[in-house]
Write a structure and sequence with these properties.
Strand order of the largest sheet: 5-4-7-8
Largest sheet: 4 strands, mixed
Shape: extended
Helix content: 40-55%
Number of domains: 2
Radius of gyration: 32 Å
Oligomer: single chain
Distance between the termini: 85 Å
C-alpha cells in the first residue's frame, strides 16, 4: 500500500569540495603541477597569474576552511539568477582570489629550475650497434634479431617464451619464422657484450658468463654446479654440493667465489642508460634545515603555480549581468560563468588548504622528532603514530595519513618518506618506551656482526635482544627480519 511518511535522519556527507581537498592532499608535489594543469584545462576561469604579487599577496598561513558552498550570495544589484537567489556580480569581480604558493612557505628558499637531460647511449642502441657488425646475417635474421633485442628487459633477460615470440613476429611484423630459427639468432645475441645478455633465466645468464672465461678446473666446476646442482646452490646446501663434486670445503669455497663474482643483471649494470626504464624522480615536498641552532621548515611550492580567477570571466559576468535578466540565454550564460568562477575559487581554496595542512603536519613531525632532526641518529627517533600528530595539529587521523602518504622531506642526512618517522612503541624491561625502528637497527647490527659460517637463528636473535632489554617474541623477530629483507639463517651462511 502506497503512502507518505515524514521522518528525520542524521546524515554525514562530504561536499565535492572536501572530496577535492582530500584528493589533493594525497598527491605528492611531483604530481601537483599536472593536477593543476588538468584543472585549468577543464575550467577556463582558472589561470596562472603572469603578474607580480607585490600589491596583492594574501596571507596563506590561515586559509579559509574548505566547506560546502551554496549559491546564495547577498545581492547588492538585486539581479535575480535562475535559482531565485540574488546574484552579486561584484562578489565575483573581486581581485582577492589570486594565489602565490611561495608567499608563506617557500619564500626563503630560492630554487633553480633546470630541465633534466638524458645523456648517454641506451642499452638497446649498444646491442644494435653490435648487430650491425654481423655481416653474415640475412635481412630476415636481422629483423628477428632486432625484435629479440627490443624484447629484452632492463636487466638484459629475454623473459618472453620463444613460441610467443614466433606469434609476435607473425602478427606484429608479418614475419614467418620457427622456434629453431629464433633459437639460432638468440644464440648469436648471447655472444654480444655484456656477457650474459639474452639469457632466459639466472642460471643461463651465469653459465653464459662462465663460458666466456678461460676454462680452468675451477670454472668447469662452477659450470657443473650451475648446470646440475643449481637448486642446491641457491639453497646453500654446501655439504651436498661438496659430496656431489667430490671436493673439500676449501675447494668448494673457491668454486662458489667464482660464481658469486658474476653479474646477475648484465643489462642493468652495463654502463648504458635504458630508455625503457621508468626512473622515479623524487622531488622533496619539504626541506628541513638547521639554521642558527633552530630547525627551519620549507614547503616546496615549485609545482604549484600562481593561480587567479580569469579577468575575462569577471568581465563577461559583468557584461551579461547588464543585459535582460529575463532572457533565457542570458540567464544560462550568467549561470555557466558563475559556476566556473565558483569551481575556480573552490580549487584555489583547496590548494591553499593543502599547503597549510602539509606545513602544519610537517611542523608537528619536526616538533615531535626534534632530537632526530638535529642528530640524524636513528636511535633518536621516538615512537610516533598518526594519532600523535593528529592531536598536535588537531586534524583527523585520516588527514594526517593522506599527508604522510608518498610525501618526502629533504634533511641534512638524506631524503626520507614521511612514513619513515612513524613507528610503533615497544617497552623495554626497564619500562622505557622505544621505537620499533630502534629494535630493527639493533637486530640488523647483531646480524651484521655474526659469524657468517654460523649465522644465528631467530631463536638466538631473540635471546640476544632479551639480553639487551628488548623482550619480544621469536615471531616478532622473524617479522622484523623480513621487513629488513634479511634472509633466514640457512641462506645467510657463507663458507
Amino acid at each position: 500500500m502506497l503512502g507518505q511518511r515524514l521522518s528525520q535522519r542524521m546524515l554525514q556527507k562530504l561536499s565535492p569540495q572536501q572530496i577535492q581537498l582530500m584528493k589533493l592532499l594525497q598527491i605528492p608535489t611531483s604530481l601537483l603541477e599536472q593536477r593543476i594543469k588538468e584543472e585549468m584545462e577543464i575550467n577556463p576561469a582558472l589561470e596562472e597569474n603572469p603578474n607580480d604579487f607585490d600589491n596583492q599577496k594574501e596571507d596563506l598561513a590561515e586559509p579559509q576552511e574548505i566547506k560546502e558552498h551554496d549559491d546564495d550570495f547577498g545581492g547588492q544589484n538585486n539581479e535575480e539568477d535562475i535559482f531565485g537567489n540574488d546574484l552579486d556580480v561584484n562578489e565575483y569581480a573581486k581581485d582577492d582570489y589570486d594565489y602565490n604558493p611561495d608567499d608563506d612557505y617557500a619564500g626563503k628558499q630560492e630554487e633553480k629550475k633546470q630541465m633534466p637531460l638524458t645523456v648517454g647511449k641506451s642499452f638497446r642502441d649498444y646491442l644494435l650497434e653490435q648487430l650491425a657488425l654481423q655481416g653474415e646475417l640475412s635481412e630476415h635474421e636481422r629483423l628477428i634479431a632486432d625484435h629479440l633485442i627490443g624484447s629484452l628487459d632492463d636487466d638484459g633477460y629475454l623473459r618472453r617464451a620463444i613460441d610467443a615470440i614466433v606469434d609476435d613476429l607473425a602478427f606484429q611484423r608479418n614475419i614467418s619464422t620457427t622456434q629453431e630459427e629464433i633459437e639460432s639468432v638468440l644464440s648469436l645475441i648471447q655472444r654480444f657484450d655484456p656477457a650474459g645478455v639474452g639469457a632466459r633465466n639466472l642460471r643461463e645468464c651465469l653459465i653464459l658468463q662462465l663460458e666466456r672465461k678461460k676454462q680452468t678446473k675451477t670454472v668447469e666446476k662452477a659450470i657443473e654446479v650451475l648446470a646440475n646442482y643449481f637448486d642446491a646452490f641457491t639453497k646453500k646446501h654446501y655439504d651436498k654440493l661438496a659430496r656431489a663434486l667430490n671436493i673439500d670445503e676449501e675447494e668448494l669455497k673457491i668454486v662458489l667465489d667464482e660464481i658469486i663474482q658474476l653479474n646477475p643483471k648484465p643489462g642493468g649494470t652495463s654502463g648504458h642508460s635504458t630508455t625503457s626504464a621508468a626512473h622515479q624522480t623524487i622531488i622533496p615536498d619539504f626541506t628541513v634545515e638547521e639554521v642558527g641552532g633552530k630547525l627551519e621548515i620549507y614547503l616546496n611550492g615549485r609545482n604549484a603555480p600562481d593561480l587567479r580567477i580569469s579577468d575575462s570571466f569577471k568581465e563577461m559576468l559583468q557584461s551579461y549581468s547588464k543585459g535582460n535578466i529575463k532572457d533565457k540565454k542570458n540567464k544560462e550564460a550568467v549561470t555557466f560563468i558563475k559556476q566556473k568562477i565558483d569551481a575556480a575559487k573552490w580549487f584555489i581554496d583547496a590548494i591553499k588548504q593543502r599547503q597549510h595542512t602539509l606545513f602544519a603536519t610537517m611542523q608537528a613531525i619536526v616538533q615531535f622528532q626534534e632530537k632526530y632532526f638535529f642528530s640524524g641518529d636513528e636511535m633518536d627517533l621516538r615512537p610516533m603514530i598518526l594519532k600523535d600528530i593528529a592531536e598536535i595539529t588537531e586534524l583527523d587521523i585520516s588527514t594526517v595519513s593522506r599527508v604522510a602518504n608518498s610525501k618526502y622531506v629533504q634533511t641534512e642526512f638524506g631524503i626520507f618518506l614521511l612514513k619513515y618517522f612513524f613507528s610503533e612503541s615497544l617497552q623495554t624491561d626497564s619500562g622505557e618506551e622505544v621505537s620499533t625502528r630502534e629494535v630493527k637497527k639493533i637486530l640488523s647490527e647483531i646480524i651484521d656482526a655474526e659469524e657468517k659460517s654460523k649465522p644465528k637463528s631467530d631463536e638466538d636473535l631473540t635471546e640476544l635482544l632479551k639480553e639487551k632489554g628488548y623482550n619480544i617474541a621469536r615471531r616478532t623477530v622473524a617479522k622484523y627480519r623480513e621487513q629488513l629483507n634479511i634472509p633466514v639463517a640457512r641462506l645467510r651462511k657463507e663458507l
